[in-house]
Amino acid sequence: MAFSSAPEDLALHGVRVLGFSTTSRVAARYGMDVETVDEALLDFEARGWVRRSSFAGNSGWSLTDTGRAENEKRLAGELDRAGARDAVTDVHAAFVPLNRRFGAACTDWQIRPTRLDPMAFNDHTDWAWDERVLRTLANVGRSFAELCGRLAESLARFDGYADRYSSALRKVDLGQRAWVDGHDRDSCHILWIQFHEDLLATLGIPRGSDT
Prior knowledge:
By secondary structure, the chain is mainly alpha-helical. The protein contains nine helices and two strands. The protein has a two-stranded antiparallel sheet with strand order 1-2. The longest helix has 26 residues, at 85-110.
């Protein structure tokens, strides 16, 4: 049976994974009660692990340096209690080349080189170019789902990433292109970034060191 994280641990981890996030978003991500998450975050604020701030008319929570350290300490404890370190390490090793493929596809979605400009913005008028990118994202998604399934067998909080990725791709297929890399929704790109951060935090690997 997969290890289930404690609600207060999910509250702290959710702030890290989601970045600058509201209490309700953290609660929704893990299917928790908003009041439970709010109580935990207020306690963490008093301990100096999270801070609430406002930017461009929006307010949300973010981790402090001590909060990141506490988060990683708790995640390491989970790995030991779940006996999942080897399994998660193996998934990370398989994810690294998949991450490169995904990154290249996202670059091709945003940039389509021309004879005069190798960094020309992709205006999405080249149907064949975009279809090639979307086929790559779909193929990557199948491998991603397999890795997520392996993780979810050990750590329950990894469940759901693959379904949200597939849901985003279905919206793209319906013509809603923002679901590839939009920053205001659970797009393929946003979910990928969050999963990568989740995986790195779980293993205590600094971002950028696994490329």
